Amino acid sequence: MAMENLAFLIPLLPALAFVLTFFLGKKLPSGGAIIPIIAIAISCVISLSITAGLLANPGHVVTQSVHWFAILNLGILIDPLAAVMLSMVSFVSLLIHIYAVGYMSHDPAKPRYFAETALFTAAMLGLILSDNILQLFVCWELVGLSSYLLIGFWFHKPGAASAAKKAFLTTRIGDVMFLAGIVLLFADIFAILEGKLPEGVYLLQFEEIFKFIPDLVAINSTILGMEVSHLTLVTLLFFGGAVGKSGQFPLHVWLPDAMEGPTTVSALIHAATMVTAGVYLVARTFPMFLAAPGTLMVVAMLGAFTALFAATMGIVMNDLKRVLAFSTISQLGYMVLGLGLGAVIGAEAVGVSMFHLINHAFFKALLFLCAGSVIHAVGTHDMRQLGGVGKVMPITFATMTAAALALAGFGIPGTSIGFSGFLSKDPIIEGAYVFATQTGNWIPYLFAISAAFLTSLYIFRLIFMTFTGKPRSDYGGHESPSSMTIPLATLGVFAVIFGALTRGKFMTFIESNFEHLDMNALAELGGYHLGPHGHEPLLILWMPLIVAVAGLVIAYLIYNKRVIDMSRIVSSENPVYKLLYNRYYQHQIFVEIFSVKIIYEGLALASFYSDKMLDWLVNGTSTFLIEAGDSLRKFQTGVIQDYAAAVVAGVGLLVILVKLIMEVF
Amino acid sequence: MLPILSLIVLIPILFSAVTFFTKTKEQARISALVGTLITLVLTMYMYFSFDSTSAAMQFEEAANWIPSLGITYHLGVDGVSMPLILLNAIVIPLLIIYTWNDVRAAPNRFYALILAMQGAVIGVFVSLDFFLFYVFWELTLVPLFFMVNIWGGANKKHAAIKFFIYTHVASLVMLLGIFGLYYNAWSLNGVPNMDMAYLIGQFQFLESEIARDAIFLALLFGFIVKTPVVPFHSWLPDAYSEAPTAGSVLFILLKIGGYGLFRVMLPMLPFTATPSLMITIMGALGAISIIYGAFLALAQKDLKRMIAYSSISHMGYVTLGAAGLVSLSISGAMFQQFSHGLIMSIMFMSCGVIQTKTGTSIINNLGGLAQKMPKLTVIMVLGFMASLGLPGLTGFIAEFLVLTFSFINMPIYVIIALLAIVITAAYHLWALQRAMFGTFNEKLGDIVDISSYQAFSMGVIALLVVYFGWHPSPVLDMMITNSEHIVSLMAVMGV
Amino acid sequence: MVNLMLLAPEITILVTGLIVLLAGLFLSAQSKKIVGYIAILGCVVAMLLTISSFGTTAVMFSNSLSIDALSQFFKIVFLTVTTLVCIASVKYTDGNDHADEYYVLVLFATIGMMMVASANDLMVLFVAFELASLATYGLAGFEKKNPASIEASMKYFIIGSLSAALLLLGIGYVYGATGTTNIEGIAQNIDLLLNSPMGILSLVLLIAGFGFKIALVPFHMWAPDTYQGAPSLVSALLAAGSKKMGIIAAFKVFIGALIALQADWQIAFAILAVLTMTYGNIVALSQTSVKRMLAYSSLAQAGYITMAFVVMTPMALTGGILYALSHGFMKAGAFIATAAVVYMVTSENKDILNADHLDNFKGLGRRMPITALSMTVFVFALSGIPPTAGYMSKFILFSSTIQSGLVWLAVIAILNSALSLYYYARVVRYMYAKPTDGDRVSEPLPYVIALLLAVAGVLVIGIWPEPFVSMAMEAASVLI
Amino acid sequence: MIPLNWYLALSAIVFSIGLYGLMTHKNGIRMLMCVELMLNSANINLVAFSSYNDDMTGQVFALFSIAIAAAEAAIGFAILMSIYRMRDMIDVDKLNILRW
Predict the structure, then answer these.
(1) What is the ipTM of this complex?
(2) Which domains does chain D show, CATH number per domain?
């Protein structure tokens, strides 16, 4: 098919758009936004058509490959997993670009903005359709770069500059783990092949890597007294990368700060697309995870913990965007948890997780864009100063409410009726229950269900504080222009119905991705037992809805009707509130203790002073010699008698010395 | 056939003399530019007629020089030296363009020194006779000594003399090693011969194990001081940071230490009495340089010193990759030399601009420069990103190859190097944030962006960084060919 | 049959000297310039004669003179230095009423040195040695109105006489033990000296006698004072020429006559070589008078050359001999450059005391570009930076040290050589990196010619050393 | 016949006297005389050896040496004259502007 052959254009067009916009943007209206919009639209069309093709024939994956350097290639692999992501990313990116035309209309640096978002889109699309782990890493870093640039878009604000740096550095920790994983993987493959690299085969392609899974499991190393399979190490290191990029505990600290960037950036990068790259990485290499003993347990536990941990902070934030940021972290936790459930449900976990990923992309992007719309209109992020915005901005209000319902997960269990978030989050929570029954570990389920309650609470707190009641400050405001509201409405539609439309088809489509691999055999290698499921008790099925409704009701009572007085809880006296409000003192721990005290003052200054010592040693030698010369020259007294004495003494000493040495030897 | 190698060495030296006798700045810079452009054209011609699938010496020239000592005038180029010659031939004309409108005393001498330096450095890369090699090797010291001494910063006297003597000591120790090799081979075969390949080949036949190790260590010392490698780096921060921008860039282009590792040390390595010990020494020094340099860079308050230390950190990859002993790790190390030359040129050029425009390079005294200097910021961010190893730029290719393929033989050192990556990112971003972003420091007064000359030369280098980051094969392929050759030489001994 | 043609260089110089002496009687002070040209001509002719007969071997005058490659090589060294000095002196002696005497002394000193190079008998050697010494005593005190010059001359004279006495004593003992003063005769009868209690004593006395000329620590004490105080051009002659006379004498006596005592004198020379190069270099570090610094540097250089006695391989001797030639160019050049600076400074201010102070070299790169550039070449050559004569000589000398397994000596020498870079580089820094308020001055042509010739010599030996190396090898083969 | 060692002893004594004088006296003339003493002690050696070895070389050498000593004295006095003209004294130990 012709469209398939154009697959390489998917990342290249936005990349070209980046270059064009960067250099020509200033000369075009609205910062040259039209260039990336057209480019991404074409990418989107190609992606969608390839996806359509794949839907018709899931086995017909698109592959393209060119030699890059040494023994590496650049290649394209569009299988169902990639196709879905491509379509979502290009589509959401397109909408957000259109939205940004209105949102960024007052900013003088528009060309830079559109160039950078185009760069991001290119990198993200490149990441998704990589057919090898290195190219994925390359694009992985490039999206990190775009994220850095876009968070720091308003670089003249010290907060933005600092947040950009923090985001880059924190994710960099994960990236290094990812890189270490690739290094270890390659070294192991090298060892398995006994140093004889086959000609014409690119070993870092996913398909090639998967062939080595049994050999990799067999290699063991003893680390800290534990016998660990190298596959476990590799997957854990990959997961480390995912933890950084997808804002999982403990590397999530950058994500709330990343809200310093323009809201469109938050929507595109820090909600819908880039942060899901970590989830995508795990999904992409899922066969390795499935075969690695112990890894999926770690994944599930960490995902569940992050889901709850972030949600607790979400309920106390007063900044519109920060609430959404914590919500993103929490939802990413769900996705990671979903992947971890592979331990009991196998490849289905990828389907579940990806489904949530896509749905989340729609409703979270929508939430951010709505927030952006509000901020654009009223000029503040602080919910305590808002209130009653719904009257001024009805479209925003409506779409945001739809998104909130999707996030909180409203729907009727057992049917396909419900907001998209419900239809994708529910299977994860159910999966967690299966996980609990199969492994006896209830923690993921308990965390997930508690987080579901908190999710509902914080998102409706946001809705009520922002849109209902009376204005708490004088902000004026107006409904946003149509270039903003049309994307809102489009996304709103998707947030409401996408889940319901695609539910069944989606899962099977994604699962078909791994059809050619024997997932059960892989699970055997990893020591996981995939059991049948689908017969959960009714309470378990209804539980998510129950907690969601509970959350809504409590939020309504507190923040709309003000029935419950929060003043005693929300005070600096309350240690729990203080802990949450200060975000568990992560900043203090990470920045002040870890970065400043240990890394900077400890190690860097220690090196600094040790280097001073070394330098002193070198300079000291020269000083010593010069001083020695200064003393020795005093022998040259200028008096002839002394000179004569030196000659005579020299003769005498030389006779004695020569005599002595001759005697001794 | 054109004696192209002699020409690319002699033309810069010739033009150096011409430039020295020019009267005005205009004449000086034009003469310098013409000289370097001719060199560039010749180098490009050589590059395009170069066969990157062959590990043999190409464009060889040989003539008797001092027959009574077995010294010949022997030049040649292969995949190890070609990229480095290319690097010099490309960056130096750009450097001259970069300094086009600079105001400084005695411009004729300034440009003459740049050209002399170019001739000397290329001379090192093309020499295939140890005598000639050493002659050029030492000659590279002199222009830099003058450069720092005449146009250097406040502490130039100290920096220049320290650099001069420290590296001279190292060169002399290396010379002793060459002597050892030369005479041992002489007494073995009865004829004096200074030819590099011959002497390296004779190394394995030396009877005494102590002599072999001593010779190896002496040569290694010479090379790693120049590279430089911790703990023999003390000369570098002072020299790099006190030198004028052009001097710093010339320092960066002085890749002769790492070149020596590939050309001389690696083929000899398997035949030392204790190869594994030597590998450990090299690997450990490389890894220590990487992480120690990174921490030191993090502790610096001066932008230029920070870049200097970051250079130490980056050059650690060269030593580590060389010690990795897998053909691709060696290629990675070679590529790191090439890439480091480009990246650091941007870094020092950016820093130079900041220093001349604001009068300071203390990071905390800067701030918010991006608002006044958008063009510089774009190039500088690109340079910094390349330096911290961002994929898509040259630095990543080199680091990836070195890390991945050194891991096979020395996992511990690679893990140390991996830890340093985060630190590397930290100091780069920290410096960018403090110097370029945030609110503008009003004390700095009125600042204008870089001139179009500067933008041109930095921009071209930046483009090269991107180009080779995505398409490294034009230089990487020949490196791989040669490193496979080196490894195959080692494999003969089963190391 | 005596082939007088082989003595033609000496005869030429002698005749030139006599012509100059006679001409001086009849010429006025202004027209005395002509004697300089005569002297230069004589030197050049003598040099050409020496080169043309290079490699001829002959023994003449009852076996008391021998002409061979070694003696001819050193004659070339001496004549080179004398030529350079004479050329530069044309300006120095311009308008001086005593110019004729100056040239006569220079030429006679040169004859003395050349005779030492050909001497095959200790008697001839001693007489020639003293001829050169006496002439240079006078030259050192040539500036009669300059207290420093007189003082330099006095010190040189006293220590020189003492050394002459020691040398004579040593020769006496050798003669007493072996019954002959002929070098080959001594070598044949050496058993008598070996068994004599006078053996080591005579050895050390001879070392002291020659060591005075070579300026080996501790017989060097006069050298810095004299080099500093004497007129710069005379210092050039002393450091570059007369020093080599000590070396060739030592070559002849120790290697030619006393080879059987090799073990003893090698130890002595090893000690002296290390002491000399280290002391010279370290003390030179803190000097501010350029001439004094060059004096200490020439101590260090003498230390390097002395290594040839310790190593005693054909290669080492080749290195030592080549070093003598290179050092002739480098040191003479450096002193002539200093002389040019001193000339410039004194012509600006007659009464200045420390005309050779480092401060006067500030900004020389702008004030006297040719002088500064030449000086740069000389000091870099002295420190052994390629491609110069200094590097080439060090290359051969140090490498031969490694060859014979004396790694410790090579390491000491190498470290010393690195250390020396400090004070040499400082001169360069003063010339190019220090600002000055002085204007550009025109450099006198004779100085410029002498400097450029010396630069050419330094670079030619550095870049195309083959003819020189093979000549030095031939010379070395005479000894071993 | 007087044994050779007696001559050698005499020569050594004369040399030592000369050396002592050279190192203790300040007056230039006296130092010059001491130097002459030392040279002559060496001459004694040469002549003694000559006679004991039954070889004329030593005596010829001594004659040369005496001639050289005379020349040396001439130069020495000339230098001392210059010093005297400049400073009105010939104390050699005052000559120390050149040092260190």
Answers:
(1) 0.89
(2) 4-94 (1.10.287.3510)
